[in-house]
Amino acid sequence: MRDLPARGRAVCSGFIESVTHQPPSEQPFFSAVVVDSVRPGAASAGGVRKPYDRLRVIWLGRTRVPGIEAGVELRLDGMVTQVDGLPAMFNPRYEILSRQEHL
Question: What pLDDT shows up at residue 22?
Answer without folding.
Answer: 82
